Amino acid sequence: MTATQEPGVRQQPSSSAATGVTMTLIQAVTEAIRGELASDERVVVFGEDVGARGGVFLATAGLQAEFGSKRVFDTPLSEAAIVGAAVGMAVRGLRPIAEIQFADYIGPGFDQLASQAAKLRYRSGGQFTCPLVIRTPSGGGVKGGHHHSQSPEAYYCHTPGLKVVMPSTPYDAAGLLRAASRGDDPVMFFEPKRLYRAAKGEVPTEDYVVELGKAAIRQEGSDISLIGYGGVMPDVLKAAEALAGEGVSAEVIDLRSLVPWDRDTVLTSVAKTGRAVLVSESPRIGNFMGEVASVVQEEVFDSLLAPVIQVAGFDTPYPYVQDRIYLPGPTRIVRAAVKALTY
């Protein structure tokens, strides 16, 4: 598999295989939502200011004018109401795509997600499903301070019945969002806000999906596995480039999907390289990458040449002024890689 291939339902097409348009990540999100609204009349989009304004980051800009205020509409400033309405709509046959303005603010709707959406299929013996998507900007790097910069995905990874996704490229954002919207389970769709306009790439104009639970190998390597997801991926790739300058061949894996996550791709890579550095920006305690580390050490312990090392955010509220120190960057990732290589 080359660095440009995608191991999901559909391989990322080359320019000769399909017509593509260069987009930012947020433009890809918009186009994916537009396509779902156009192709399925059951899809409805709502949240705080998502209508006429198009959302705080303009992810839904223009959609209300195109599809009308009954399918794209504003809600009260109540996360509990947004999630609760989404659950009710999903049970009644609609396919809601709800926006929570910032991931930091999902808290008031947590009970609806953990106690209702996540359990509905199980408690009804499969008689009901809950096909909804909760989209939300997540993570730091945009000077949002401690109320607009958190990465709370681990809370939802710990809740059986929820699927959890975090793309890092425009291609993945569109493909994963389509897959999430067309499935029959509730999906938490975290969007790394620092990549909204920084991440650019070619997105096919034809319809495609990226299967949830399939990682992407961004770069093949033989000496060490660098594994991350979401907003940290540009820094992981920069770290791999820096290591290459020192003669180190790093394999770079983008998980893309946390629940389910691609155990096979990760375990195959680490068994090959013998070393792993796991990168995320959420706080270290309870970090989802701790689960990845546990599985790696249980399944391929005999192949490890060094302990699995995590590079994460710190166990503090997100700092406004010192976010560059808080966020994992290429320097911290390279330092961890050197430690693993010289163990």
TrEMBL record:
It comes from the Bacteria. GO terms for molecular function: oxidoreductase activity. Keywords: Oxidoreductase, Thiamine pyrophosphate. InterPro entries: THDP-binding, Transketo_C/PFOR_II, Transketolase-like_Pyr-bd, Transketolase_C. Residues 23-198 form the Transketolase-like pyrimidine-binding domain. SMART domains: Transket_pyr. It holds the Pfam family Transketolase_C. The keyword Transmembrane does not apply. Its cofactor is thiamine diphosphate. Heterotetramer of two alpha and two beta chains. Directly associated with ODBA in the E1 complex. PANTHER family: PYRUVATE DEHYDROGENASE E1 COMPONENT BETA SUBUNIT, PYRUVATE DEHYDROGENASE E1 COMPONENT SUBUNIT BETA. This is 2-oxoisovalerate dehydrogenase subunit beta. It comes from Deinococcus ruber.
